[in-house]
Design brief:
2 domains; five-stranded antiparallel sheet; elongated; Sialate-O-sulfotransferase; WSC_carb-bd; repeat; WSC domain-containing protein
Length: 218
Amino acid sequence: MLSLYALAALLPAVLAQSTYYGCYTEIPTRALTGGSHPDFVNMTVDACELACTGFSLFGLEYGGECYCSDSLEVGSFPTFETDCNMACVGDNTKICGGSNRISLYGNETTPPVHTPYSHPDVTAFQSEGCWTEVSGPRALSGATGFSLSDMTVENCGNYCLNSGFTWFGLEYTAECFCGNGLDANSTLAAPEDCFMACSGNPDQTCGGPNRLSVYQWV
């Protein structure tokens, strides 16, 4: 009898109907809880889709893990695309998630509904200026993100809000920091200290060396 992975190799036309939604955060209880099919020898995107037949969503993680479900669990949300950086063990031309990051696919053209962590009811963000980074604990000590290719003010802001934080700051072109307020030791800096272009949008500024371009959701 053919394995699921052998069958997947025979059915590329059928398996080409799925939509790639992007890189999503994993959570302690799993973002997709309908089933799991790990294989650290043969895993491919097609093999995972076939293994998840009957489910509307499937995702790959850590190169060889496959998960299925019909919905995302609370706390999983879109993150920086470069967080998914591990090749599939069965096809090194494709990405199969990353460490605590899942490459998410599904059978609908639009991404699934995701539920962010609890946060105040806010609708937009505003600039709070350029601030100093602090030694020891960060000026913003909540969640962190990093991307050498797709860091923008909007991407950092959405990442932090989904993580449950209303303050966010961008530093050194590619770094994103979240919190619910700045550390008391962080001080307002000269605007020109924040001069480095964002890795995902050269028209935006993402801080500088030990300097944060700070924003707040309101």
